[in-house]
Amino acid sequence: MLSPTSIRLLAASMAVTAILGAGAGAVLETGFPMPAGQWAFVLLTLLLPALGWLIARRRPRNPYGWLLLATADCLGLGALGVGLLVSAGADAPRGLLVLAALLASLFVPFYGLSWVFVPLLFPDGRLPSRRWRAGAVIGGAAIAVHWLGILLAPDQVYAISPVGNPLGVTGPGELVVAGLGGLGQLTVLGTALAVLVSLLARIRRSSGAERRRLRWMAAGLAVTLGGFVLATFFIVTESAAIWVGLTPVLGALPAVIGVTVFRHNLLDIRVGLRGSRFFLVFDLRPTVDELLSELAPELEEAEPGEQLGRLAEAVRAALDARWAAVTLADGTRVVAGAEEGEPELTVPAGQGLIACGPREGGFNGEDRRLLRALAVPVGLAIQSAGLAARLVNAQEAERRRIERNIHDGVQQEIVALIAGLELARATGADSETLALLRDQARQTLADLRELAAGIHPSVLSQGGLAEALEERCSRLPVASALSVEPELRVRRFSDEIEGAVYFTASEALANALKHARATAVDVRLTLSGGRLQVAVVDDGTGFDPKAVARRGLVALADRLAALGGGLDVVSAAGEGTRVRAWVPVHE
User: Beta 479-484 vs 520-528: how paired, if at all?
Assistant: First the structure.
């Protein structure tokens, strides 16, 4: 693949070749100073290479710019060949005459490319449909056959050179060559008319900016073909009004392409006037900062799922793609626009992907840089959406666990207590039965308090984080040590921070007892560098963190992440486990 510098040099060299060839051919044909007609020809030939260079440089992956440059080179080198034939005498070297004939014959592919492929592949260098594959092959073959017929024709090239064709075929082969040339030209003209009909059909099916662009191209092709008919008539009659026909042949298509490039913002280029100054503005797309500044108020008010949709629409609008999609790690897709065609540009975004559908004119390196920059906020939105979904699932699981505990435990005890009270009232129960019911009511109350403590222990609300951890460690059936910095014994934090740190430590302690068979645990609560951190270290059996799901710690890790914190687990078989959780706080 060529480097950006090589691409720019190639595009510039092709444009310069076309311009210099046309200029040199005009000078050789009439001498200098040139008449007005030759100056008009040279000026008209400047349009096509200029547009081709601009598109190839701005959109190097778009074949259309290179097609225009190749067409312009055929025109410029063809003009140079005609100039060499006109200026060469009969005694000119044969090698020069052969070269001149070869170059002059390039007018044929110039016309064929202009009539067939320039309008057919407009504006992204692609066929409008698969059905045109056969038509494109027929058109290319017809251009080649027509070119071969002109190259080998024995008569004077284009009827303007005093030198006969050094490559001309005479004798029996002359009829074959003439037949090839005529058949190729008729086929090219027929294909050009089919392209014109196809453009009109596409105009009927399209809408908006695409319809306006196609209208210009259809009009340009119609004018070009009409101009060719006029130019052919004037050549036959040797009329000076030949330029009535040649002007649209050379200028109509470049003019309509220029209109679509500048007026309809085909390549992010705009023409403007400021006072008396004429200027071009490139890169009309907003920057990432501008996009995020516009989106920030909407993103703040939107739910995570809505954020993805708005970011996808921002990507689609910024790159002027037909559609843009954000794909989450679980395969969920959020699409902006009508998803038609395969994605042409895809970049990773956090744990997901951003994909862009086709764009008229294709994508260039600047588009990729813009999309990679947009991938950062999109990746954060994907992470936020995933985190929100996991938190919702964790909250739902916790709600069901509490519901289960109430239904299977306290609710059944209360039902039994009510039944006992009803029986005691009906039978006039003695003091022993009432004492039994009292003890049952006290046990139910104790179970309720224990359940409430599991949701949010009262000691955490009343005494703070350090006191709650001390109370939790004091009830452990194994040796435990708690280390708390002195200032943390009296300092309080928000309920969200204290709850996240406490329940993470509690889950780590429960895992050490249930799964690791630990005989000792060490808990440390510290505050450093704006981070409140708790670490739980046990001497248990340990495990491979990559091979074992953390289960209960996953929901707590999401809870910490929602606060801007994190959780890590370090363990190995036979080496115990270290769980560390932290959240940012203002010191």
Answer: parallel
Amino acid at 391: L
- Centre a 10 Å sphere on the Cβ of residue 275 and count the other Cβ atoms it contains: 5
Helix (H, G, I), strand (E, B) or coil at 489: helix
pLDDT of 82-138, one tens digit each? 888 888 776 778 888 888 888 988 989 999 999 999 999 987 788 888 889 999 999
DSSP 8-state code for residue 350: T
- The residue length of the chain stands at 587
In 3D space, the residue among 192, 68, 188 whose CA is nearest the CA of residue 122 turns out to be 68
Pinpoint the alpha helices (H) of 263-410. Answer: 288-301, 304-319, 365-405
Residue type at 171 in one-letter notation: G
Write down the pTM of the prediction. 0.55
Side chain identity, residue 585: V
DSSP secondary-structure letter at 59?
-
User: 92 is written with which tokens?
Assistant: 């000119």
Q: Hey, what are 300's tokens?
A: 């703040």
The Cα 49–Cα 43 span in angstroms is 11
pLDDT in tens, 388-438: 555 555 555 556 656 555 554 555 556 556 666 776 777 776 777 677 767
Residues 16-73 have pLDDT tens digits of 999 999 999 889 888 888 887 788 888 888 999 999 998 888 778 788 889 999 999 9
Q: Residue 566, exposed/middle/buried by CB under 10 A (0-12, 13-18, 19+)?
A: middle
Name the DSSP letter for residue 479. E
**Contacts of the segment 204-209: beta carbons below 8 A, 24+ positions apart:** 209/264
Q: Residue 128, SS3? A: coil
Cα–Cα nearest to 551, from 320, 393, 342:
393
Q: Which residues, 6 or more positions from 78, have their beta carbon under 8 angstroms from its beta carbon?
A: 21, 25, 103, 104, 105, 106, 107, 110
Token pair for 193: 């008319």
Using DSSP, state whether 345 is helix, strand or coil. strand
Angle at 141 between CA 135 and CA 142, to 5 degrees: 85
Compute the radius of gyration of the chain from its Cα atoms: 40
Pairing of strands 520-528, 531-538: antiparallel
Q: What are 499's two structure tokens?
A: 């709850």
- As a whole number of angstroms, the distance between CA 174 and CA 145 comes to 14
- Kindly give, in sequence order, each residue whose CB lies less than 8 Å from that of residue 57, ignoring residues fewer than 6 positions away: 7, 8, 11, 12, 65
Q: What are phi and psi of 177, to 5 degrees?
A: -60, -45
